[in-house]
Amino acid sequence: MRKPPNNPYDISRLDLDDILGTINEEVRQRFGENRGEVADYIPALADVPRDRFGMALALLDGTVHEVGNARERFSIQSVSKVYTLTLALEAIGDALWKRVDREPSGDPFNSLIQLEHEKGIPRNPFMNAGAIVTADVVLSNYGDAEATLLEFMRARSGNPEVGADVELAKSERESGHRNVALANFIRSYGNLHNDVQDVLDFYFLQCSLRMDCVDLARSMQYLADGGRCGPSGQQVTSAEGATRINAMMMTAGTYDAAGDFAFHVGLPAKSGVSGAIVAVVPHVMGLCVWSPALDRKGNSLLGGYALHRFTRMTGLSVF
Ligand SMILES: NC(=O)CC[C@H](N)C(=O)O
């Protein structure tokens, strides 16, 4: 049986580059197994090659370790929901929880089913329904929501080149019938305050932001460091705020696979249908893995495997 180190958070005992190298080799050996599919319900995502894998770790002192395609950009999709949740909580605090619940859903990320039973109050801010309400809150509370989000992401990642993929956002707007349905349904309960189209435009824009694993690992640092963002030096949220967002990621960040994820990985994490998964080792590092082929629940198959191997090889897990 694996014996836990005296201080599991002391990472000076670990050769992180060696560990990343091993994971990279293991993942690449699995490319041929032909498991998982890239998301094709968003036309622009269907063209992304599946045999890609990148992983990056950003330590609290700013050191980055990376491997594979860690500098290849992709759209961040639902990973963006972590950042809009942060912005919404900073704007209206606990009032957000009157409009979005904070329970795991056990349903797919784009499910409509619970919404009717629960009268237009989405289960959590990481399902599409909850993220649409969160987007509405951001729109209502920041003068120029789009510019605010872009500035937020550039500051969190330390990369001034982070930008939206306008073509991708357009492609999602044209094919996102289910999101249109969700938004209208929530509106019918009075839980959207802005024009449905404006909310959806903002939601699709947040999903289309293009970043790479290094950008995203750095952008997770504030959640590992009690709300303090290393790249900008800003206190983005309070230590309590960071703890709560991590808790949401743990219980709902990978949708109806959150239980399985806690079992195999054991870190707060958030996935997106482009194949990205961000994760946090509290007090130690932000992480990002990316590999486009997804499992049935919409989480990166090899990304999940890589995080599993990482937590087992390092002993880093909140459990
Ligand atoms: N899980 C996801 O990444 C979903 C995001 C995607 N843009 C959608 O709304 O369907």
TrEMBL record:
* Domain of life from the UniProt record: Bacteria
InterPro entries on file: Beta-lactam/transpept-like, Glutaminase
Q: Which gene encodes it?
A: glsA
Select a single GO molecular function from the record's annotations and give it.
glutaminase activity
Give EC number(s), comma-separated: 3.5.1.2
By sequence similarity, the record places it as follows: Belongs to the glutaminase family.
Biological processes, Gene Ontology terms = glutamate biosynthetic process; L-glutamine catabolic process
| Protein name, UniProt field | Glutaminase
Q: Which reaction does it catalyse?
A: L-glutamine + H2O = L-glutamate + NH4(+)
Q: Which organism is it from?
A: Luteimonas yindakuii
The alphabetized UniProt keywords are: Acetylation, Hydrolase
| Quaternary organization | Homotetramer.
Q: Mind telling me which HAMAP family this protein's record contains?
A: Glutaminase (MF_00313)
Q: Where does substrate bind?
A: S78, N128, E172, N179, Y203, Y255, V273
**Sorted alphabetically, which Pfam families does this protein's record hold?**
Glutaminase
Q: Which residues form a coiled coil?
A: none
